Predict the 3D structure of the following.
Amino acid sequence: MSASIDIDGLTKVFGSGPEAVHAFGPSSLHIGKGEFVSLLGPSGCGKSTLMLIIAGLLEPTSGEVRVDEKTVTGPLTDIGIMFQDNTLVPWRTVWGNVALQLELRGENPSRHRQRIESLLASVKLDGFADRHPYELSGGMQQRAAFCQAMVHDPDTLLFDEPLGKLDAMTRESIRTDLQTLWLSKRPTVVFVTHSIEEAVQLSSKVCLITPRPGRIDRVIDIDLPYPRDLDVKSGADFVGHVREIQAIFHGYGVL
Ligand SMILES: Nc1ncnc2c1ncn2[C@@H]1O[C@H](COP(=O)(O)OP(=O)(O)O)[C@@H](O)[C@H]1O
Ligand SMILES: [Mg+2]
């Protein structure tokens, strides 16, 4: 199950008059069902603003977002969201935090014990279900937050720099797990990152956003085979995409 997302002539301006901040747009983009799309752009170009508008948590100034052809007018429920700072509550265990997502939806988590356990195992957290967030490393906390975002099998996942605060090795290993999960369930993913390599490794499409006011300037199809492992990453096609994107950002004056 996955959703299509259409961003249509979208603009966001915060405030008005001389104080107004033109944060994003105008831009349009079609994201097909089951795609993995990265938004890549410099700090302040409106990536988080765009994610909040897609999620229905922020109103656009003009234009609209449609999910499965329906205009978004309020918070979406069939999505999983994950940010740089996770939303785990400190007083619940890992299991309890993942279960919370189901409880909030009026479901009985004990009916879904198997799903929670297999999700935790898929990100190597089996054996940590009874631990509290403070007992986990940063990487393990983000893995738990992935499970929290995915346990209700949402059609759409919105990830805003979820790996931003992690060290390079942990990032690399979580990327692999994330790719495996995406390949097995095929939700539609919108993924914000600063890392060109990360975007090329994970995405079917990479959208390049200009410096503020951010506009989606280029959409690059990455048609490399999945799963993209170390062999793919050292191949000429992969390196070519990374160089191409670096050159475009250099042209924006960002690199
Ligand atoms: N609630 C807000 N009120 C006013 N300005 C905002 C608000 N949220 C974001 N901005 C401004 O909009 C621009 C884009 O911000 P953001 O979407 O957070 O960028 P990114 O996620 O790409 O770093 C920035 O200049 C930021 O200061
Ligand atoms: Mg941001």
Remarks:
- The beta strands are 5-14, 21-31, 36-40, 62-67, 70-71, 79-82, 156-160, 188-193, 205-209, 216-221.
- The first helix runs from residue 47 to 54.
- Residues 47-48, 160 surround magnesium ion (ligand 2) (CB under 6 Å).
